[in-house]
Write a structure and sequence with these properties.
Structural class: alpha+beta
Helix content: 55-70%
Radius of gyration: 26 Å
Number of strands: 5
Strand order of the largest sheet: 1-3-2-4-5
CATH architecture of the largest domain: 3-Layer(aba) Sandwich
Number of domains: 2
Largest sheet: 5 strands, mixed
Oligomer: single chain
Distance between the termini: 44 Å
Order of helices and strands: HHHHEEHEHHHHHHEEH
CATH class of the largest domain: Alpha Beta
Shape: elongated
Length: 263
């Protein structure tokens, strides 16, 4: 693509300085520029608008082609995962959103302070609304280092889960729906959320010191790393991955394909 862009721009340059005749070869164009680089500046001065137009067109074409290649590679990878699904750990006493025996399991790796995870939260809510008892979501943790409240939020979630999965689920929703409050409130947003969902605050403070919480979060992070999920959010839908805050249609495509395979 780099060579193609150079050819397009160089052809425009030679045209701008009056080149005529049969289309020059790649080697001729390259040789002309190397022999006298100043012709580039002459061409720009002669017709700068045309030069910018060609450069922008080449950049747009490069972006389009890169996007198409990425989409093709992603489809190929996704098709492979349908054949050989990823296998995250589904056991343990984890908070589950939805019906426990739902045919579709979405494992989510998330960061409570990540704005993209907030977008992912909204999309997952749309998935739950659309598919109801057909989906269940297992929320796992991937707190990023540059989000200082992500790890404390993950620990609060797991500590509240020791009291009640229902309260932990409500806490999860409260934090994502009020995520902007981290800027001014910091950890106060977490205590505020815990009180809001009716958590026993004394037990919460005790459970926050439980080493099992740290082990759970560490295991989640290690699992995410195993599946090459370095950013958030990340999702595994019955073994098929989505890395990023994809819109609802991407989830729908994977879920519908899974459901069609079970009929």
């Amino acid at each position: 693509m780099k060579t193609s862009r150079i050819l397009i721009v160089t052809a425009s340059i030679l045209s701008a300085i009056g080149f005529s005749g049969c289309a020059p070869s790649a080697s001729q164009l390259k040789a002309a520029i190397e022999k006298d680089p100043s012709i580039v500046f002459v061409a720009i001065e002669k017709d700068p608008a045309k030069f910018i137009e060609v450069v922008n067109k080449a950049a747009q074409e490069a972006q389009k082609n890169a996007g198409e290649r990425a989409a093709q590679e992603e489809k190929k990878s996704r098709d492979e995962e349908f054949k050989n699904p990823l296998k995250p750990e589904l056991g343990g006493d984890r908070v589950i959103f939805g019906k426990k025996d739902a045919p579709i399991t979405i494992v989510e790796y998330s960061d409570f302070q990540c704005p993209y995870c907030s977008r992912g939260y909204q999309t997952v809510k749309q998935v739950e609304k659309e598919y109801g008892d057909k989906v269940r979501i297992i929320f796992k943790h991937l707190p990023l280092d540059f989000h200082p409240m992500a790890m404390p939020a993950a620990r609060y979630f797991e500590a509240i889960a020791k009291q009640s999965h229902e309260k932990a689920a409500k806490f999860h929703d409260y934090i994502f729906e009020n995520q902007g409050g981290f800027k001014d409130k910091g950890e106060k947003l977490l205590t505020e959320g815990a009180k809001k969902v009716g958590a026993d605050m004394a037990k919460l403070q005790k459970d926050l010191k439980d080493e099992s919480i740290d082990k759970t979060i560490a295991a989640d992070m290690e699992e995410a790393k195993k599946f090459n999920m370095s950013g958030t959010p990340g999702f595994i839908i019955n073994g098929v991955s989505l890395r990023g805050a994809y819109p609802f249609p991407e989830f729908k495509s994977i879920i519908d394909q899974h459901l069609s395979m079970t009929k």
